[in-house]
Amino acid sequence: MEKITQTEWAREIGVSKQYVCYLVKKGIVELEDGLIDREQANRAIETIRDPSQPLRRKNYSESGEKLSTMLLKTRIKNEMERGKLLEAKAKAEIGELIAVEEVRNEAFNVARVVRNNLLNIPNRVSALLASLSDTEKIHKTLTEEITNSLQELSNTKFQI
């Protein structure tokens, strides 16, 4: 015969303390020294229970409630991450997203073309500049060549 308080028994069977007090007042559950005999109370509940209704037992303890809250939060986070992943996969399939490695390779290739084009300017204009002695003409020629080179690059369609 294990005796427990009304609050503990209410928590065990998943009802309010007020309902336990109601059962005590009606004489369905008996108190001995202010405590409930667990076995007698459970038998009494079984006799008055409506079999068409599901059992309402919830064996919660304080740590159990914290655990279930933590579990719920973890599940919510997992579902959010799963949703983000599915959204990213869908966007990748329709072409809205591309892989980081593809972007890096393409950026490297574009930068290499720009660098090569700029480094090629001296080869194209060195003979012309050697014949010029006026600094203004040299400056103008270099500026035109750089502008033409950059304009040519801006008109080029890169595969992205």
Automatic annotation (TrEMBL):
Protein name as catalogued: Phage related protein
Organism: Wolbachia endosymbiont of Oeneis ivallda
Classification of source organism: Bacteria, Pseudomonadati, Pseudomonadota, Alphaproteobacteria, Rickettsiales
